[in-house]
TrEMBL record:
<dbReference type="GO" id="GO:0005886">
    <property type="term" value="C:plasma membrane"/>
</dbReference>
<feature type="transmembrane region" description="Helical">
    <location>
        <begin position="274"/>
        <end position="299"/>
    </location>
</feature>
<feature type="domain" description="Major facilitator superfamily (MFS) profile">
    <location>
        <begin position="61"/>
        <end position="395"/>
    </location>
</feature>
<keyword id="KW-1133">Transmembrane helix</keyword>
<feature type="transmembrane region" description="Helical">
    <location>
        <begin position="62"/>
        <end position="83"/>
    </location>
</feature>
<dbReference type="Pfam" id="PF07690">
    <property type="entry name" value="MFS_1"/>
</dbReference>
<feature type="transmembrane region" description="Helical">
    <location>
        <begin position="353"/>
        <end position="372"/>
    </location>
</feature>
<keyword id="KW-0812">Transmembrane</keyword>
<protein>
    <recommendedName>
        <fullName>Major facilitator superfamily (MFS) profile domain-containing protein</fullName>
    </recommendedName>
</protein>
<dbReference type="InterPro" id="IPR011701">
    <property type="entry name" value="MFS"/>
</dbReference>
<feature type="transmembrane region" description="Helical">
    <location>
        <begin position="98"/>
        <end position="115"/>
    </location>
</feature>
<dbReference type="InterPro" id="IPR036259">
    <property type="entry name" value="MFS_trans_sf"/>
</dbReference>
<feature type="transmembrane region" description="Helical">
    <location>
        <begin position="311"/>
        <end position="332"/>
    </location>
</feature>
<dbReference type="InterPro" id="IPR020846">
    <property type="entry name" value="MFS_dom"/>
</dbReference>
<dbReference type="GO" id="GO:0022857">
    <property type="term" value="F:transmembrane transporter activity"/>
</dbReference>
<feature type="transmembrane region" description="Helical">
    <location>
        <begin position="127"/>
        <end position="150"/>
    </location>
</feature>
<feature type="transmembrane region" description="Helical">
    <location>
        <begin position="186"/>
        <end position="207"/>
    </location>
</feature>
Length: 395
């Protein structure tokens, strides 16, 4: 073997120098059975190299960042069963109260564009720790708010601070998971992020029915506190540095932080194929998931005079539809690619996009069922929830 044959490359680093979670980039050509791959998975000397961690530790980190993403949407939608109580306490209408969730959802979609360049300069670990800690402080403030203006300020800040994993989780999974397992891990992350929206109001409906409004925010803060401690424990197991050394931010990329870096993701909009596809999926998600979730207290609560717990139960259909859709879509996509390989010699990843036509059709059917059945109902029945489940399945 040559002089440098025992060095495995990670971007600009080798295994002879410390490589941190924030900077590591996995070689794409490491396949199972490859000699370098076998050496890579057996290394135990470098605790700062995520690929040298035991499998359970890498799995734990992936699940933690996926749960972080789920918590962001969980908290945004978790206050939905409390709309009526907040409208009464703050002296506003239920429709105005819905802006507390709408503003958070808007920031969850926009803020990751701002956090991306920052994470590439200062590292993802410090950003995640700051994200959870700042969100915890805002939730504590939310529990003490007495006016609508103050509450919407805490919700906007919470959404902005908790949003980083939505934008950077894909990169973390790419670094921690081997190529043959990467798609499955990304699927778990997507599933948890989508499930956070209906699961939040489903669970918090029981909380609102049996406790005070402030406990909704105290529970959110407690979730942040538990995750913050879990992040510190996991970091302690993965690094030999002290707690103070781990918490102090350090620059991982010496290149200057420019305004152009924040706008770089938007440059993809110049490609029509990317822009049209992104718009189609985002609009579908907004109607099949966000719109249904936000409108439930108004559409069901006021029409059928439901309490907070019963409003939360209306989200069961969205939970079931989202879970089934996410699980079946991946398997159907793989089966479709295998089918195409039997009929033509060359198959491209973009061929999977043909299946979105089924999803769009399912969303149309679900939304029409949900809307018409809800409009024609004179008393509560399950058919609007079935329509919501069908739309969530297609989404």
């Amino acid at each position: 073997m040559s002089e440098n044959s025992d060095k495995v490359g990670f971007g600009q680093h080798t295994l002879e120098e410390p490589v941190h979670l924030e900077t590591v980039t996995v070689r794409q050509d490491l396949e199972p059975g490859n000699t370098i791959h076998q050496e890579l998975t057996s290394i135990e000397g470098d605790c700062d190299d995520p690929q040298s961690w035991p499998k359970w530790k890498r799995e734990l980190q992936i699940w933690m960042i996926a749960v972080h993403s789920m918590v962001s949407t969980f908290m945004a939608a978790g206050i939905i069963p409390a709309y009526e109580r907040m409208a009464k306490d703050y002296g506003v209408s239920v429709h105005q109260t819905s802006y507390l969730s709408s503003a958070q959802i808007l920031l969850l979609g926009v803020a990751p564009l701002l956090w991306g360049p920052i994470s590439s300069r200062y590292g993802r670990y410090h950003l995640c720790v700051f994200s959870v800690f700042g969100s915890m402080l805002c939730n504590i403030g939310g529990a003490r708010c007495t006016t609508f203006g103050a509450q919407i300020a805490t919700r906007v800040l919470t959404a902005f601070l908790i949003s980083p994993p939505i934008g950077i989780c894909g990169g973390i999974i790419t670094e921690l998971a081997l190529p043959e397992h990467r798609a499955g891990k990304l699927g778990y992350w997507t599933l948890l992020t989508v499930l956070g929206t209906p699961t939040g109001p489903f669970i918090m409906g029981f909380v609102m029915q049996h406790t005070e409004l402030s406990w909704v925010y105290w529970i959110f803060a407690l979730m942040n506190f538990v995750y913050e401690n879990g992040e510190h424990i996991n970091s302690a197991l993965s690094s030999k540095r002290t707690l103070l050394q781990r918490l102090l931010p350090r620059r991982t990329d010496p290149s200057p932080l420019s305004f152009r870096a924040f706008l770089k993701p938007l440059s993809l909009a110049k490609y029509p194929r990317i822009l049209i596809l992104a718009l189609a999926h985002s609009i579908t998600f907004c109607y099949a998931n966000i719109a249904i979730v936000v409108e439930v207290p108004i559409a069901f609560g006021e029409k059928f005079h439901l309490n907070a717990q019963k409003i939360g139960l209306q989200f069961i259909g969205v939970v079931i539809g989202s879970a089934l859709g996410e699980q079946l879509s991946g398997r159907a996509s793989d089966y479709f690619i295998k089918f195409l390989r039997k009929r033509k010699p060359e198959v491209h990843p973009a061929d999977r996009l043909w299946l979105v036509c089924i999803g769009f059709a399912t969303v149309f059917c679900g939304l029409l069922t949900w809307g018409f059945q809800l409009q024609n109902a004179t008393s509560w029945n399950v058919t609007p929830c079935v329509g919501a489940a069908i739309a969530s399945f297609g989404n």
